[in-house]
Design a protein that fits this description.
By secondary structure, the chain is of the alpha/beta class. The chain contains six helices and seven strands.
């Protein structure tokens, strides 16, 4: 699943600026802008990017598929990272954003420079960027629906959340609570945020 997602992202990022699917992308350079790497999902994402990116370079699909991860999970640092990618002349930037809207200025700069921007997971709201989005709220609700199917008698739930203040976490939590409201046999007795940074 993860490999397929990253192959799709890589293909979308290099193909979007081309008019034809058969256009030569072998000279194109793509960069990953990642806002942190502090959990197992992010580590798996980076490994997938590395594997798929190296193969794309080796096969001559693109000239480069370079990953960049910020040292801290800060919007200002990721914005500077994207601005550096613009200066380095990348043709496409794939972003897992620290904020849906705080990076919009840097993303707009990239688009204005003719760079294709594709955001995923942590998506951006800047209209010029392509967004590969998941309905995180529905995902949270689906977790409760799964439990309702497997445990019809219900039970008490401990909600273990992701990074505090990250919109993905907020959406998943909202879905969980909506699912619990519709399945009163469950009760969220506590919610805790993990220290994933």
């Amino acid at each position: 699943m993860r490999k397929a997602l990253f192959t799709t992202i890589l293909a979308a990022a290099v193909a979007v600026p081309m008019q034809l699917a058969t256009a030569d992308t072998s000279g194109k350079r793509i960069a990953l802008s990642n806002n942190y790497a502090g959990n197992s999902w992010r580590q798996a994402m980076l490994k997938s990017w590395d594997k798929v990116g190296k193969k794309a370079v080796a096969d001559g699909v693109v000239a480069a598929a370079d990953p960049f991860t910020t040292a801290e999970n800060q919007v200002t640092e990721q914005a500077a990272q994207i601005q550096n990618m613009i200066l380095q002349g990348y043709d496409a930037i794939v972003a897992n954003a620290a904020s849906p809207d705080a990076l919009n200025g840097a993303v707009r700069e990239a688009c204005d420079a003719g760079i294709t921007v594709v955001s995923f997971d942590g998506i951006v709201t800047e209209p010029c960027a392509w967004r590969i989005a998941v309905d995180f709220k529905q995902m949270g609700k689906d977790e409760i629906l799964y439990l309702a199917d497997r445990m019809p008698q219900g039970g008490k739930l401990l909600e273990i959340r992701g990074l505090a203040g990250v919109f993905v976490d907020d959406e998943i939590s909202a879905g969980i609570h909506e699912g619990v409201a519709e399945n009163s046999q469950f009760e969220v007795v506590a919610s805790v945020h993990g220290d994933w940074a």
